[in-house]
Amino acid sequence: MRIVRFYHINKVLLQHGLDELIPDRLLPWYAKATRKSLFWIRNRHRDKSTGARITLALQSLGPVFIKFGQMLSTRRDLLPPDVANELARLQDKVAPFDREQAKQIIKRALGLQSLSELFSSFDSAPLASASIAQVHAARLRDGGQDVVVKVLRPGIRATIDADLELMFTLAQVLQRWLPDGRRLRPVEVVKEYQKTLIDELDLLRESANGIQLRRNFEGSETLYVPHIYSDYCRKNVLVMERIYGIPISNVDALLAQNTNMKKLAERGVEVFFTQVFRDSFFHADMHPGNIFVSTHEPHNPQYIAIDFGIVGTLNRDDKRYLAENFIAFFNRDYRKVAQLHVDSGWVPGDTNIDEFEVAIRTVCEPIFQKPLAEISFGNVLLQLFNTARRFNMVVQPQLVLLQKTLLYIEGLGRQLYPQLDLWQTAKPFLENWMREQVGAAAMFKKVRENLPYWSEKLPEMPDLLYDSLQQMKKFSQHQERAQRVMIGLQKRANHAAHYRTIGATLLIISAILPLYDSFWLIPSGLATAGLSCWFVAWRLGKAPRVVE
């Protein structure tokens, strides 16, 4: 199966002429020979642009590759404009599957004889089509609310399993043979990616994620999360409130309605950090196809988020270290950044802090006090990668989703308001969060949160205190008894060793004496005495039963 899929991937890449994008000087001789030997696979899209060929190839290869293209589409600083524009089509313009098949899936999932039992209207033409599912516009018969019905692509699990199986094979090869393989931990990263993809195939999980995210931002001016109709959700079908807004990628439409682009970009940063540090629950698939802007108050813009199949969480330690790293980074305290990396275990404990500090300063200092338009994040990421490799920094799989989301946010900010000062926007938020986590206010908050538990346990405290004092009183007695037992066992072990030595000596002598024609009774007596010594040693070696 892996060989067949590997061949298919190479076939698709060659049929779209993507091998032509690699300069000849970078290809080894055996790669060139292999390409020429595949004479029956030719480029079928010579008339199309580079971006169109890449997009078609990724679309042909399925959801794993489509999602990779979605992420690349937000990085216009790393790609030529024509390529980025074509890749943006992957966000919600993937080829749909048969509409009649979609209807049948919905009816089977919801137990309907006809869609009219639940919907007063249902649009057969997909409203949007993505890598995992497609959505149809509809109206509920009960209540008349406009909704969208999300339907999972049929057979998508088999395709994803095949791709992941191949990715695991490649990751294992890389981890074993690349010099940086163990540090980059590609197998663990693929496992993390597998978990997010498999989770995304369960629309019941997505509905729960959407309900949680909506509760976190209830009444917020920065982010609106549509209502999920959980009664109509199944593993392969999801029904959600239909939203009306401007896609975040349609900058012209946003400008036409006089949207405050500076505030919109700043709120994007605020939404990201709020999800990560306040809630520890963040939307981890924030590509432009999943983000809209409300048309109600352009001067006070509000984001609208959809598609909650992939969410990320952070534990308390990772969240604390990340916040401290960000603040130290914003304050240009590279010494603390280096020390935090060591304390968190992200770099080895024997790392030279002074050298690590200098390396981080060399990479980061040039990018401060510059708007996004003047920063080459591609170059910064490359330098950080080289720095990490030099100091054996271990990739943290649990942070991969966060890193991907941060790339999305930075890409959106670049599109919306290139003059955005990312550092000054994020720094006050993180400082306020840190103040809430430490100090008197944080302590009283934790006391208040734990008060119900403590009040429940308080009546038990006298009994627990009395039992603890009794245990402490008896502890010395138990310790003395255990010490006496240990001394006795040690003596028995020493005596047993002596008897074993004497027994072995007597047996050896009893075996030698017959060689000198000695009277048979003497060696027999010595052998008997030796065996008796061994028996005594065995008896002594048996540990006595300890009576409490």
UniProtKB/TrEMBL annotation:
One of its GO terms (cellular component) is plasma membrane. InterPro entries: ABC1_dom, Kinase-like_dom_sf, UbiB, UbiB_bact, UbiB_kinase. Signal peptide: none annotated. One of its GO terms (molecular function) is protein kinase activity. It holds the Pfam family ABC1. The keyword Transferase applies. It comes from the Bacteria. It is an enzyme of class 2 (transferase). The chain crosses the membrane at residues 519-538. The active site is at D285 (proton acceptor). GO terms for biological process: regulation of ubiquinone biosynthetic process; ubiquinone biosynthetic process. Keywords: ATP-binding, Cell inner membrane, Cell membrane, Kinase, Membrane, Nucleotide-binding, Transferase, Transmembrane, Transmembrane helix, Ubiquinone, Ubiquinone biosynthesis. ATP binds at L127, A128, S129, A130, S131, I132, A133, Q134, V135, K150. Its EC number is 2.7.-.-. It is found in: Cell membrane. It is a single-pass membrane protein. Residues 89-340 form the ABC1 atypical kinase-like domain. Pathway: Cofactor biosynthesis; ubiquinone biosynthesis [regulation]. NCBIfam families: PRK04750.1, UbiB. Belongs to the ABC1 family. UbiB subfamily. Belongs to the protein kinase superfamily. ADCK protein kinase family. Is probably a protein kinase regulator of UbiI activity which is involved in aerobic coenzyme Q (ubiquinone) biosynthesis. This is Probable protein kinase UbiB. It comes from Alteromonas aestuariivivens.
